[in-house]
Design goal:
- Belongs to the zinc-containing alcohol dehydrogenase family.
- Keywords: Metal-binding, Oxidoreductase, Zinc.
- Its cofactor is Zn(2+).
- This is D-arabinose 1-dehydrogenase-like Zn-dependent alcohol dehydrogenase.
- The protein has 343 residues and is of the alpha/beta class.
- It has two domains: 176 residues, Quinone Oxidoreductase, Chain A, domain 1 (Alpha-Beta Complex); 123 residues, Rossmann fold (3-Layer(aba) Sandwich).
- It is 26% helix and 27% strand.
- It contains ten helices and 15 strands.
- The longest helix has 19 residues.
């Protein structure tokens, strides 16, 4: 079979706009692989690449950091990977290995990381070049469109929950039932936590229970902190909804030594009363994605426990529509671009 000389990519041209380009198929350099993309999730973080104004001289980047595909070319020096192998690429796709964080083994907080779709081209395309050190092994029996969101939204929530210090039987609350939250509720239930889902509106209660929540709190009708306090206090609250005010109001609902773990970036600040922190030893911490090993463990856990994102799929040609709907919150709950929608 003759390899096409070009491939299609949706590139960010600024101000929220994507344009299609026909590009020559690149050869991977040392330590890199070329991936034939099967699916790529559309994440809110893609707005960092798509929304800013761009100078005419600025190179147009391909967004997308929830990528699943197969290796079709290996660069020199690549070991441990083979042609045709199913792989994924998440948000963090390589580290500099020289900054203080890397030298201390904390590659997630690398000061100059390779960020898929932000510092290098991502997965809104038929083909993508990736650093071999950033590859994630993806099981063949995971549907590409369902696996893609697990590489970012899944990893973020899974890793934050399992590293927060809660134990099976503890009360763990998930604030928000969107792209991150609907996965977090499934993970929390499967980890053995008494899972509380928090959102606005009584209409979301059936969904919360279907996902595995033992209790639903309607933040429009109830005091979240008061309900959590009456339950005994949440050992962990995972904040997946980007509202600083909402996060602030939940802190008193934490148990002694409980944690508010923030994974959503709100436009307004989080304000905390020092009394709620000092008396009870409560804390507010952030959590950022994870390593490739963490990502493989996320996929394995999701596969074992039958945890899947709720998705809407779009052909690559509809990348603009998929992105616009995601930004409006008009997707239930993750938009995914698929390169062969009839497959």
């Amino acid at each position: 079979m003759i390899q096409p000389a070009t491939y299609r990519a949706a590139v960010a041209v600024g101000s929220g706009k994507l344009e299609f380009a026909e590009r020559p198929v690149p050869e991977p350099r040392y330590g890199q692989v070329r991936i034939r993309v099967e699916a790529c999730g559309v994440c809110h973080s893609d707005s960092a690449t798509i929304e800013p104004e761009r100078a005419e001289s600025a190179s147009a980047l391909v967004p997308g950091h929830e990528v699943v595909g197969r290796i079709e070319a290996l660069g020199e020096g690549v070991e441990g990977w083979s042609l045709g192998q199913r792989v994924g690429v998440g948000f963090l796709a390589g580290e500099d290995r020289t900054c203080p964080s890397c030298r201390q083994g904390d590659i997630v907080n690398c000061e100059k990381p390779v960020i898929t779709g932000m510092t290098v081209d991502g997965g809104y395309a038929e083909i993508m070049i990736a650093e071999a050190r950033g590859l994630v092994r993806v099981p063949d029996d995971l549907e590409a469109a369902e696996a893609a969101p697990l590489l970012c939204a899944g990893l973020t929530t899974f890793n934050a929950l399992r590293n927060a210090g809660a134990r099976a039987g503890d009360i763990v609350a998930v604030h928000g039932l969107g792209g991150l939250g609907h996965l977090a509720v499934q993970f929390a239930n499967s980890m053995g936590f008494y899972t509380v889902a928090i959102a606005r509106g009584a209409d979301k209660a059936p969904l919360a229970r279907d996902l595995g929540a033992h209790r639903y709190i309607d933040a429009k009708a109830e005091s979240v902190a008061e309900v959590l306090h009456n339950l005994g206090g949440a050992k962990v609250i995972l904040a997946t909804a980007p509202t600083g005010l909402g996060m602030s109001e939940m802190v008193p609902g934490l148990s002694p030594r409980g944690k508010l773990v923030v994974v959503a970036i709100a436009s307004e600040p989080i304000t905390v009363n020092a009394i709620d922190l000092v008396f009870g030893g409560r804390s507010v911490v952030g959590a950022l994605t994870g390593t490739v090993a963490d990502n493989e463990q996320t996929l394995a856990f999701a596969q074992q426990r039958n945890i899947r994102p709720l998705i809407e799929t779009f052909p690559l040609e509809q990348a603009q529509s998929a992105y616009d709907r995601m930004m409006r919150g008009d997707v239930r709950f993750r938009a995914v671009l698929v390169m062969k929608p009839t497959h």
